[in-house]
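ok so heres the complex, two chains, lmk if somethin looks off
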Amino acid sequence: MRTVVLKTVAKVVVPAGILHGLRLLVVGHDAPGGGFAAGLVTALAVVLGWLAFGTPAGHRRWEFGVSLGLAIGVASGLGAVLLGRPFLTHAVSFVGPVKLVTSLFFDVGVFVVVVSATLAAVRTLWEAGS
Amino acid sequence: MNAAVAPVVVPLLTALLCVGLQARRTRWTVSLAGGGLSVLASLWLVALAHGHGVVVLRVGSWPAPYGIVFAADLLGALMSAIGSWVALWTLVALAAQPHPRLDAFFHAGWHLMLAGMNGAFLTGDLFNLYVFFEVLLVTSYFLVTLGATRRQAREAFTYVAVNIVASTILLMGVALLYAAVGSVNMADLAARIPQASPGLVRPAVFLLAVAFGVKAAVFPLYAWLPHTYAIPAGPVAAYFGGMLTKVGVYALYRLFTTLQPLHGPEPWLLAVAGLTMVLGVLGALAQEDMRRILSFHIVSQIGYMVFGLGLGTPQAWAAGIFYTLHNIAAKTALLLVSSAVEASYGTTSLRSLAGLAHAHPWLGVWFVVAALSLAGIPPLSGFWAKLLVVQAGLEAGEFAGVAVALAVSLVTLLSMLKIFTGAFWGPPPERSHISPLEHASVVGLAALTVAWGVGGGTLLELATAAARALGDPAGYVRAVLGGH
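and the predicted structre for the whole thing:
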């Protein structure tokens, strides 16, 4: 598998893929994208990196990432509760031309869940196969 | 009001914390504290729903019917309260049978399943009902196989297959109703179904009834239950046996009161109820194993709850709701006794067990209390539950149904006696230790059936108020859609 061609391509595609994933995460409020799509794209880039350069050694606690992401998502909704607004109410504000939305925190939570769960699934199948 | 979602968010956060915590003792503390908090959150919701009517939360401030709505009426709040209570005490029973390697997953599963159940009870959105059903089912697939024996894997496969088919039918029903009415908000549906084309609504309601019927394990859709519930770890079986089928019963109540209200007795529901009672109890009679007898009784008892629903009057619904709450307490207590016995003696077969009453007199006492309550002996809650159902049946003129209900309760008593003579009488066995935590878990539920027996008035008042709210779908619609 680990041919020169794959390694050369991966050196460009892996960072580009991760960057593209992060871009999807940020633009997701107004344009196609969002935490779920961004998480899948990022996880795919990481998996391509694994294919080209091998998986990192050691046991990872993926379930920790899944629960961390879920916790970020739930916490993003609890801010509104503290202010006496309905759960998961989000706010938008503009700093000059930059649009800031608190729902980005929810998307980050989804992103972390999707990346951790996908990588956990791939890693498990990987280890079962080899 | 955010209170409507508290019984979902509290267990969700508890589950996440439990996965993150490494130290066993801290994890147990957090888990039990979270269970206690869930109970408090849902009791608070009961108080609010009783005082002010439907507690509505428009999640994210999106207006109904466009956004997602939580609408906790008294029935939903009561179900979430008893669900949280059962989750807490079955968790206490689990503390007595620790699986060190799987600990974190048990905790996460326990609380996530509670979050799914409470979500199903409290949501005001039919599609979200489906989503929360999936949340609790996916967690239950996972809990049912924890322990990882070959037998569990085999039986779990049936369980998963049956439920995936039922969930698909449920989703088709929701989609069809959406096609007919153009909404999945339950209040919006309730308001607009009468104007929609019956050619689409009727098959949609049929699909929903079938899907909920599988989950509730009514005749002829119950065959999966007795085998599945015989295999998981004891406390898991108690948690499932006490609560899971009742989520299906709740959904049937919601379907045939809020969405498509019954007006008077519905013959096919009554027939289903009668057959469920009879076939469940006959199945139980044929078993020689404590846990299997109790599993078949779950099916039989569901019949009474559906009977109350099928009579189609608020008074009968009150009887059905009382019955459901009583049965959850009594049934979970019995399953926890069986779980304690299995943990200490390695079996629940009536052929291998004997003389437990000598070795563990208090366990015997609590078993008898819960068993007599299940059979409907005064002054326990089961007596009032049966009396109310029978009274409602007589008033509706459904004499055949009442006769069946009474005959079935005699046979129930017979099979409880069978467990008692098989497992609790006879020469004392070689004594094995039963942990105080197991005792505590049984008492936590059996005490409820005693309390509701002696002081049944309070529960009856709550059940009546809940049924009155069900009988007024227009009030539900106003509460959810009001101001739009």
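quick notes: Chain B touches chain A through 16 residues (CB under 8 Å). thats all i got rn
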